[in-house]
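To whoever picks this up:

The parser on our side crashed when reading a file containing two proteins. I've narrowed it down to the boundary between the first structure block and the second sequence. Both blocks are reproduced below exactly, byte for byte. First block:
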Amino acid sequence: MFRKTVLNLTLACTLALAVAGCSQKKMTSLKDGTYTASTTGHNGPLEVKVTVALGKIKDIDATKNVETKGIGSLAIEKIKNKVIAKQTLNLDTATGATISSAATLRALKDALKEAGLTKESVDGMPKESINQVLSEKEYQYDVVVIGAGGAGLTAAIQARAKGAKVLVLEKTSQVGGNTLVSGGGINVPGTDLQKKKGITDSVELYKKDTLKGGDNVGNPELVDTLSSKALDAYQWLVKDVKMNFIQDRVQQFGGHSVARAVIPVGNSGYEMMSKLEKLAMDKGVDIFKNTGAKKLMVDDKGVITAVIAENAGKEVRFIAKKAVVLASGGFGSNIAMRKEYNPAYDEKYKTTCISASSGDGINMAKDIGAALVDMKQIQVYPTCNPQTGIISYVANARFDGGILVNQEGKRFVNDMGRRDVISNAILAQPGKYAYLLWGQEVEKNGHMTKMHKNEFENLKKSALLFEANSIEELAEKTKIDVTTLKKTLEAYNGYVKAGSDPEQQRGGKLRTILQGPFYIQKVAPATHHTMGGVKINSKAEVLNKDGKAIQHLFAAGEVAGGVHGTNRLGGNAITDIVVFGRIAGENAAK
């Protein structure tokens, strides 16, 4: 009996060691050296340089890329760290940055083929995840915020400031949402930066512009809240969030009577989102990434009690003892949903929106009886990359004096008009695209080619932007009739000198286009913002179809409708998310 027991134990130990040995897979020994490979990421060329020493990956340099800061760049960094730490290339991709992740892994594998890497050796490596995996089936918080974009983090910080225990659920691998990929400009009347430039503005003028810009379809009560609380929101961003704004720049977007948009350093949403994330973490806000909300739970009294979400393929329940805040964004990336509410915006449109803009929050709210408003109102942005649909920030040269011409070399629209008007005008041109043209008078004011250098260089490599010392050379590169183009510029420069543009009634600052080097960029519209969403009141409470507040449910940002009417003016989205995000967070904590 004793001998049998010992034999069984010996066999068990032997099997255990064998299993352990099989489970502890290691990276195939690689040939020492430095290896380089290139591929195409989400935004353009992506290069990796891998250093192998003593058969192991010691360093990865992937700095040569044009991926979106805070999204693609963050995914690259996560992959780099995981590969070096775990010595494996058997990784999943980052949710919300799939293209950038896949491109990075592809480039790494290509680079290491010369070092002896094979597909079989990759398959035999330990499987690792760069996404967050939760351990519990249920969590309890006072306030649960759905979405870690600008509105979501603003609401979370405000709720935490009022003493609530706060959780933010984010279905992708990174915070930021559409705010992160925006230009970050925020419209505010009465800022210190306006006063420095002697710009006269008022809450009433801002309200008037916003209502008019949306064809007076926007809810006046919500627009009044947006306008009257904009300055407080800006001051909060400066004093509490510690955002830095360009001190000598106040921008006038189309549809505004005066320049009122303050621009963050870097002219992108990264300045806001990086600072909001830091403040939220410092204040004790929990953020669960890779956790997509699926359903709102309601008790028999109609009160929101919890959120059901999915993480790593498993269902997780989040109890919200006080309230839930919807801040999950719009539905610009959801083609089926766009077609459901406005069939005109079908597959032929690319989008500036991140893939997570799929309308989840709107549908969850609709399922529990929330009213929807303005759902057919979908906005396209006029100056995007025709190949990818990504919004072009180099093309912000338009706001500093650049003009739009068509393939025939003729002007066809007020370059500073409303986004919807310009977009529709571009789509009516031959080929459904246009060219943005500017010279050094404009460039020396806005510096767009330098401020957005990576995009500028990528556009040139993609033959979407040309730089030349003469108009003749630009015409040759774009196949535009040189005689027509020169006549167009001669007429326009004459308008600038006269101080008015009788041909297209261009607003904003008029600047000549006489000094080279000159730039010409091909642009096309892409879906950009969905003005419709759940119906809210000025307290950010979500309303049902009877106009009554759904208890313990709030909403802010693009998930909510009624603020912008038929058309959102440039710079109003950021004002919207901060104003109503703060209101939603404060009221949720109560």
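<<boundary where parser fails>>
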Amino acid sequence: MILTNVELGPFRSINTAQNCTIDPKVTVLVGMNEAGKTVFLQGIHKACDALDVERFEVIEDYPRKDLTRYNKTHNEKPDNAIRLTYMPEEEDLTLVNKKHNTDLKLGFTYSLTTNYKNTRTIFIQIDEKPIISKIINAGSFTSDTVQHIKEATSIRKLVEILDDLDLNDSEQKTHEQLSTRLKASNWNNITEYEVFKTLDARLPKTLYFSDYDILPGKLNIKDLARRYKQSATDPSQLTPKHKSILALLRMADVSIDELSDIDGYESLKAKIEGVSNSLTDQIMQFWKQNENIEVVVDIQNDSKDDAPFNDGANIYLRIKNSRHRVTTPFDKRSRGFIWFFSFLVWFDSVQYQFNAEDEDRKLILLLDEPALALHALAQSDFLTYIDHLSENHQVIYTTHSPFMVNSDRLNQVRMIEDKDKIGTVISENISGSDPRTVFPLQAALGWDIAQNLFISKRNFLVEGPSELIFLKHLSSVLEAKSRICLNESITIVPTGGLDKIVTFIALLGASNLNIAVLHDFDGKNNQKIDEMIKNKIISPKSIKNTSMYTEQKDKPSDIEDLLSTKLYIDYFNKTFEKQLPDKIKISDLPIGSRIIERLNRYLKEKNISLRPSGGFNHYLVASTFGSNPPKAIDEKTLSNFENLFKDINSILD
């Protein structure tokens, strides 16, 4: 199950409901301090907390400026706090379709709305007509009965009709089964209820972690035991540092009673050290800053310490540096390591509690300013760890560090701003955001550019390296023939896809850089590019698509379609000659406007595998073209590229 959309508000600094799409893997919330990033995470957490302790509280959570007005209507008409939209994955749909005789497809979604009385409202739509047809076709009804029930639009209506009919034994058995299903719910659409109950049992719950949850260097055992006992009636007794130590003890399978047993300290210490060593091993998979450190645990008395540490035994956590052969208090050294280790303790502990009941259920991890204390390169290491987490769980995290943003995945970024008289605003529109908010993205992109690209005053943005190869070579050929080629002052910038082209326009367009764009065309307008044109961020004359330079104008096309079909097929055959059973001819290919799509269909139909993921690597064909260029190129291909270069030169003149 994947969370696909969040509509949050009114909630704290969010005065007006804000809609935010959620990436299937990782979503990054970027914004200045106090912009509302934490508010967004906490709003999600209150709606579906894995440990089921969070609730929406009117006094705490409703925007203060409207609280007096809202209190007058709260009891009779509570406002909605949040709406979460989920998309079942293939395994979820397989289970549902098999269990409930449905035929739901990938892309099916449903939503849950939670109000300020913490009541949920479910929105789910399933047509019961196909299910009724399956019930009728199962053969338990006579033709006369079928005539009466065939117009039923719901299972509930079907049962009402059957109630008034004289049924045989087989029909009566089906009638009883359907009636039993109806009694389980008062929903009009019984299938929607049944499907929802199945999906709800698989709903991903949230875990929230912030800088306040790090482990302390020491804690008094008697004080912890006393607080733990009192927390049954006063939850405030357990602060984050107490909860984090309890998490460590829980992982070591140590109870509070065992911890209070003075005679058992050696065995307790051994258990806790075992867990600490295991966690240290885990962290070292991703921690590359100093691989000579580990966490050690000690339990001892110190009557000379300040209260409450002078009363009985304390549990001490220390960091050992094997290179310097010293140990230091856990909370006094390497705050980045402390945060990382504390996170692992928290995550493993809560995951253990939650998965004890359902080990297959996925989680949504809400990380508030993770890795803030880490060195810039260590933050890059932590991004690798986030990718590791996202293999099994969705991750949503906040940051204002450029090193906590993957510059090749800026489509995962959501902007958070606090606007005067409006409150917190959440947006995917990078170009329309405050420059101070966008700065981490500019810095991240700048870092990437500094390492990988040379940006000039005239930039020709294309989707990938294949475009770069074809454009460079064809420009050289045309120049040798004294025909129009690409102006030598223009830099071709491969961005890594259409989504990233949009980001490059937004972030570079404001830097007085001249930009022209060429993108592949899928047959329809790109909404983000259209919005940029509408907002006058870039001129429509600067945006070109490949179909403009092919014979089939306004048909789906790629850069490869500017080459003649024969020329591209020749290089395709050269590239994969060892893997193809026979050379492919143009007449072998299915009809279509895109040569790549036609080749992919042909490979699939002939069950030819050129790579594990299917299809073929376009860059390999372009690479063969660049390393072993044709001795002669047909006039059609030359004209297509010449027309393109003429337009780009004009745009960037």
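After patching the parser it read the second block fine. The longest strand covers residues 293-301. The chain has 23 helices and 19 strands.
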